[in-house]
TrEMBL record:
One of its GO terms (biological process) is sucrose catabolic process. Its EC number is 3.2.1.26. It comes from Miscanthus lutarioriparius. Belongs to the glycosyl hydrolase 100 family. Invertase that cleaves sucrose into glucose and fructose. One of its GO terms (cellular component) is mitochondrion. GO terms for molecular function: endo-alpha-N-acetylgalactosaminidase activity; sucrose alpha-glucosidase activity. InterPro entries: 6-hairpin_glycosidase_sf, 6hp_glycosidase-like_sf, Glyco_hydro_100. Residues 20-36 have a biased composition (Low complexity). The keyword ATP-binding does not apply. This is Alkaline/neutral invertase. It catalyses: Hydrolysis of terminal non-reducing beta-D-fructofuranoside residues in beta-D-fructofuranosides. It is an enzyme of class 3 (hydrolase).
Amino acid sequence: MGLAAAAAAAVRPCRRRLLSSASTSAASKTAAGTATRLFPRLPHPHQPPYGRRLPFLVSAASQSQASQAGPATPVPVPVPSDPRAAVSGNLPFFDRVLFPDSFPLETPPAREEEDAAAVEPAAPLREETETEREAWRLLRRAVVSYCGEPVGTVAAEDPECTETLNYDQVFIRDFVPSALAFLMRGETEIVRNFLLHTLQLQSWEKTVDCYSPGQGLMPASFKIRTVPLDENNEGFEEVLDPDFGEAAIGRVAPVDSGLWWIILLRAYCKITGDNALLERVDVQTGIQLILSLCLADGFDMFPTLLVTDGSCMIDRRMGIHGHPLEIQALFYSALRCSREMLVVNNGSKNLIRAINNRLSALSFHIREYYWVDMKKINEIYRYKTEEYSHDATNKFNIYPEQIPSWLVDWIPEKGGYLIGNLQPAHMDFRFFSLGNLWAIASSLTTPKQAEGILSLIEEKWDDLVANMPLKICYPAMEDDEWRIITGSDPKNTPWSYHNGGSWPTLLWQFTLACIKMGRPELARRAIAVAEERLSDDKWPEYYDTRSGRFIGKQSRSYQTWTIAGFLTSKMLLENPELASILTCDEDLELLEGCACCLSTKRTRCSRRAAKSHTG
Ligand code: GLC
């Protein structure tokens, strides 16, 4: 798309539409001489009041500023002076997934005037169950519009809850299962709108000061506000107001948002074949900004991404600072997706090289150092410590006393899993579901490890699924550990919320992993457990207790990603071929290029060596 066309596509006649209901004289007064803003938003502290500049409007001066960014930004984002230059390459790996014949391809026409709850879903392949019908009704009720167009779903719509907090916002991570349900139903418009509007919210300024988002950061959530155009309150406009963590409880910055955005972009493009969107300069630049932020040099030498506590789905203090598995799995997946989507040209070739290098090192590192099974635990149990040398066996100086007593009995003979975190002298042995499942989906693990993880879940069904799939992590932290690590967080008491609670939204990721590994029967079993209770329990956000028997102490009802996760799981099971919009296959080429600094002789690890590590 050329410059003018892209700019025109970005302008929404929102303000005028709202003005038409106000007095016309006020309308002409305020509209005269005022340029319509591109996606207007509330001013952000430390940011100019007129929203973000679009990439193709960036001046030559700021381009040269960007190129002088120095060593902290090794992969500068190319901002082409001629936007067409960015689309002259090709998309080498990109395969479109076709809808099954029976799928409705057209988005049903919007019926704005009607009560959203009355809108029936598009024709299903088979008779839907009552629970599915209710889920679709609730999912549609959660849809929010901006300038008359659907742009996302609120996190929860719980009529009985008086304390809304930020659950009335559209969270990037929460919207993913909603988006998938809509995509698989052929309703693609809401996803396209979401992708483009959140792109406009992405932090575009280069900031070095505190309390403002760094360039490339995607918000955790956004809200649509209606604000007066002037003091007379005669006309109003809608603005998208993002939260990068400045207002969030604990002020946590969302590292996962940008990664999810990339993953969803690929899923959308694979299912719709909308390459025109993918090739847009603003979309290409958005991907590059996210990746540049992730690939920027720091003090860390690991290929894993170094983050603060609470930077993902677990957005409270839970001892997951450092290199938590969830972020690494999403990072790997986003890198794989980006590699398929980035247009190859002079401006992007360095970034693509950096992506390939990182992918190789990251997969080696996780496969080798995060994987535990019976054999590995036994090795750690006999580790020597304080080894100073390049060829140390116990590279991270792990003291065997760290092996928790629960693990000694818990680790099954067959199978294994990726640990939650790895730092010097510290292995977090907790099992985190999302990270493990997403590592399967993205092929961050070897196929054998992926099988091993599912086999462990099957073996430990009563701990990880029990009365409600799926435990967010296992086991819970108790007593002093809970006091010190969570800071005595009353929401994260043992076996509640993030600390060993059960989250039905994780069902869709479990289903995805099961389909990828050819084990749909496991997913079917888990879905049946959830289907028993979700509707009767009013679609809770999470469940409490060791076996997930009680609805969570402070759980919202009608939590959108619970609803959407259920629908997405069912639809994926019925159309397993659609799983490929989210998954990546094992790429042996990547293992070839792995130059791992942590390997004993600093030699390149060959494909065979890398495979034999994890065999
Ligand atoms: C909670 C969850 C977070 C989710 C948000 C909205 O903060 O921890 O993962 O995105 O609620 O549902």
